[in-house]
Design a protein that fits this description.
alpha/beta, Rossmann fold, 6 helices, 39% helix
């Protein structure tokens, strides 16, 4: 039987990353694993929809705000029953995720995938796809259900 001890869950504050977080929490609870919540400030972008600052000028107050938001994304009481650590770095998301896996010795990555195709996939690339190809550990990708299945999706928190 496989027992997970360290689970890495990158969170970009999209709905699919929150859904992936639910899976990560479930796996962590099952095996009493430590959960690492990670956010990568993409240095290729100067502004994000969530945070308005230059990633090249990332201040300690910005990192604190991001860590706080990561912890707020957890359902209430989760940090009471699980060991949770936040990781905030700047760089190219897939590279930072791969690097962090090696650094912390993660047993699995649980990551949301937007399911982009066509031009948006070419323009934005797929972080999840690159992580799957390059990760040194198993990767669970979580995709948003189709609109017909949305009614069966549990609420965010």
């Amino acid at each position: 039987m496989i027992v997970l001890k360290k689970i890495l869950c990158p969170v970009d504050h999209s709905e699919c990353s929150y859904l992936a977080l639910k899976y990560a929490i479930s796996l962590a609870l099952k095996d009493k694993a430590k959960l690492y919540l990670m956010h990568v400030v993409d240095t290729r972008l100067y502004d994000t929809e969530i945070y308005k600052f230059s990633p090249y000028q990332l201040q300690e107050s910005d990192v604190y705000k991001i860590r706080e938001d990561l912890m707020k994304s957890l359902p209430e009481g989760t940090s009471d029953v699980l060991a949770v650590e936040t990781i905030v770095v700047k760089g190219v998301p897939f590279q930072e995720i791969i690097s962090t896996v090696k650094e912390i010795g993660a047993d699995i990555i649980v990551i949301g995938t937007h399911g982009r195709t066509g031009l948006s996939h070419i323009m934005m690339g797929s972080v999840a796809e690159k992580v799957v190809r390059k990760a040194s550990c198993p990767v669970l990708t979580v995709r948003m259900p189709s609109s017909a299945q949305d009614k069966t999706l549990p609420p965010n928190k």
